[in-house]
Amino acid sequence: MNRTLLPIRIVFILLCAAAGWLICYTIEDWDKRRMLATFIGGSIGILAVLTDVMLKGFSLRGLSAITFGLGVGTLISYLIGTSPLFRGADAQYVYLTQLALFLVATYLCTVIALRGKDEFNLVIPYVRFVPQEVETSLVVVDTSALIDGRIAKVCEAGFLSAALVIPRFVLDELQAVADSSEPTKHARGRRGLEVLGELRKIKNIDIRIPESDVTKKQDVDAKLVFLAQSMKAKLLTTDFNLAKMAEFHGVHWLNLNSLARSLRPELILGEQLEVELVKAGKEDLQAVGYLEDGSMVVVQGGRPHIGQRVTVEISSVLPSAGGKMVFARMLNDRALG
């Protein structure tokens, strides 16, 4: 138990017990039941503290929904309780009826508000207070974008000026991947954490890490989409399925793979380029090299020059799953060294 809260809880329980003792002065029949009243008051205090402990980690969005429900329920019970229906009735029955109305109305309104809490935008972390007239653009970053690593280079180059929102549950997922006993997952997680460190070092990059969990949903993708909706932010990812899910929910998404494809230079037939040949091709005398963007270049007659950088002339360009496949031939059959 939190040492700071412990004395507060003890004092609260004692005050509840004292209230039970003092209330006997206002009720005639309870003059001789002071110990019972004290016990009831203390029990109510203990019940409240236990409820507080059980609600540890309860989201601020849920608290806002409960507050809204209690407010509406109280208003409804007050309006009904003060209506002409109860004029002239016995005061004791009016009190009991109003109490029942209050309990039922607040309960129903609170439950309804909690069930629809995802529809409310009443939580402080999701309200942006910007001193300027123009709102700051926000981009929610998912785990795949951090592991990919290219986000750091994009931000460093100044192509992404929006504030980056990296939710706490994304960092937790990244840490879980880094702590994996599987070597591949461990390496991916470590790379993601290193990229996060690189982002923090970049000047003029605003990184925000919301501490509150957005919802009780277990699916991280659903949390990301919901958070982007709540903050009216874009979603940065390399996960195709997450991008489609975001699109379905009306969230604008940014895909680093799409950006990389868009930045690939257009290749023209007959154009000359330099490429390093790294391995043999499938056909006789063919060699294979790669452009800086990862496009494969198949060079006819280049096998004797494997390991060298040569000048080639583009003969055809075909689309492929990885982007483009370029077919070329040696230019004057001469290597650059």
Give the structure's gist in a few sentences.
This protein is an alpha/beta fold. It is 47% helix and 18% strand.
CATH architecture of the largest domain: 3-Layer(aba) Sandwich
User: Residue-averaged pLDDT, rounded?
Assistant: 78
Q: Give the quaternary arrangement of the chains.
A: single chain
End-to-end gap = 71 Å
- Structure classification: alpha/beta
Shape: elongated
Number of helix segments?
A: 11
Number of strands: 10
Q: What's the domain count? A: 3
CATH fold title of the largest domain = Rossmann fold
- CA gyration radius, whole angstroms: 33 Å
Measured by DSSP, the beta-strand proportion falls in 15-25%
The SSE string, one letter per element, is HHHHEHHEHHEHEHEHEEEEE
CATH superfamily of the largest domain: 5'-nuclease
Spatial strand order of the main sheet? 3-2-1-4-5
Unreliable stretches (pLDDT < 50, length at least 5) are: 122-134
Largest sheet entry: 5 strands, parallel
CATH C-level of the largest domain: Alpha Beta
Cofactor: Mg(2+)
Keywords: Hydrolase, Magnesium, Membrane, Nuclease, Transferase, Transmembrane, Transmembrane helix
Pfam family, one: TRAM
Protein name: Twitching motility protein PilT
